[in-house]
Amino acid sequence: NAGTEADVYISVYGERGDTGSRQLLRSQKPKKFLRGQTDIFAVEAVHLGHLYKIVIGHNGLGSGNGWFLDKVVIKDPITDLDYIFLCHRWLDQGQDDGNIARELTVTDASTFPGRQELELKREETWTAEKWKFQEGNTLQFYNRLTHGFICLTPDSRVDALGDKINKYGNLF
């Protein structure tokens, strides 16, 4: 249920202006916006110069209108540059923050390619793992070098004696 049947719109912003809201109508695929699918659209506009942001969203109509958008890549045919706009979020009134439109800024690939994608993966990992660090939990790590356990207790003490047995029955 990560695809959408709603009408999707995009506005592209560059140093020389913007496209205004444009509906993405004709994909190179027979059915557009399916889960896991990459759709390709041609959007005609005057040359906007260097792009810096887009606004993308849908009208929220139709069954299954929620949509998980990974990223948008815009290829400038004049400069042959690719502009990457990472989203990796839901555009769905019943998911995430409930927004069906997102403002996305261009990824600065010149400083560190993949930096924003790496940050998104870090955030995903933290979301999945943060329960371990909730108040009252004792964390126990196995040290392969000493073949013992290191414990981090709820009162912030560290037991690093390297006991050879698993005291708490949990291993992270």
UniProtKB/TrEMBL annotation:
<dbReference type="InterPro" id="IPR001024">
    <property type="entry name" value="PLAT/LH2_dom"/>
</dbReference>
<dbReference type="InterPro" id="IPR052970">
    <property type="entry name" value="Inner_ear_hair_cell_LOXHD"/>
</dbReference>
<protein>
    <submittedName>
        <fullName>Lipoxygenase homology domain-containing protein 1</fullName>
    </submittedName>
</protein>
<dbReference type="InterPro" id="IPR036392">
    <property type="entry name" value="PLAT/LH2_dom_sf"/>
</dbReference>
<feature type="domain" description="PLAT">
    <location>
        <begin position="1"/>
        <end position="105"/>
    </location>
</feature>
<dbReference type="Pfam" id="PF01477">
    <property type="entry name" value="PLAT"/>
</dbReference>
